[in-house]
Write a structure and sequence with these properties.
Layout: E1 10-13, H1 19-30, H2 38-47, E2 56-61, E3 64-77, E4 83-94, H3 103-118, E5 122-125, H4 132-137, E6 141-145, E7 148-152, H5 155-162, E8 179-180, H6 181-185, H7 188-194, E9 204-205, H8 209-215, E10 224-227, E11 237-245, E12 248-257, H9 261-275, E13 279-283, E14 292-293, E15 300-305, H10 320-323
Parallel strand pairs: 4-5, 12-13
Antiparallel strand pairs: 1-2, 2-3, 3-4, 3-9, 5-15, 6-15, 7-13, 7-14, 8-10, 10-11, 11-12
Helix pairs in contact: 7-8
Amino acid sequence: MERLSGPDLDVRRAVPEDDAAVVPMLREALGKVDDPHYEGLLHWKHRENPFGQSPGWVAVHEGRVVGYRTFLRWRFLDDNGKTVPAVRAVDTATDPAYQGMGIFRTLTLQSVAELTLAGDAIVFNTPNDQSRPGYLKMGWSLARRLPVGVLPAGGRSALTMVSSRVPASLWSEPTTVGLDAATALADGDVASRLLEHAPRRGFRTDRTPEYLAWRTSFEPLHYRLLLASPGDPSEGGLVFRLRRRGQALEAAVIEQLVPDWRTGARLVHRALKESGADYAIGLRTGPSAGLLPLPGQGPLLTTRPLAGSPPPPSAWTLTLGDVELF
């Protein structure tokens, strides 16, 4: 189809008044038409994020919003503890009547140019197989395959896990194991004591009490906090949620804030035993413990320089909480 450009297409920063056109377009493009939590999820990640509200761009043709592109604000610490402002390429959609006209590329390149001028250092994401080639053509590079780790609850659970290699459900299964993470981590003192065990090396998310409170606060995700010592967060803890993946019940470990490997492994075993999950899953970067490597199965991390340069591939120290969901 013919590409739209120049005076045919107006690309500008999105404003809240665009939501009436943007949200239905996103629902349609991303298969969220019947999802009752979807608008709440968008508000949580784009408007409540402690790293800042998400910048977005719209493409307008003859007064009609026909494309949308947004980036989630993020903040990293490098190996020396210096903060690095970043963005993550996330939600994008094009009106079905305008697909194939280059709108996604136009929006993305315009936003990348503006983010670079604004001083954001890098953009990162974990695109799927369908969208990755498009990003690579626009200057993204493959950084690394993020190493996944798993721990089955037992032999039968291992078989269930192997036979359930399908996408996981977005929404969580409720459980009473541990503490409600949103409530517990809204207490800045609890979060601060847990963060005494946050990673100190590598290129990692700038974890603050405000970040932990926000990251676990969206109620439909049902995040749980399992403490190593009841009532004493200074001994470490694990944040997880339960989700369905085919026939399996999966315990997704998004954070391990623990003083040592033994404590982390013990918490993973407890989460499995007390929740009845078939297996635990997380990323084996940073302080992860108790998870066995699952070679060749992690998401592919891609990056693009903006006003700065991405770190070496080996420097990335991410958890599942950094990459799941967004």
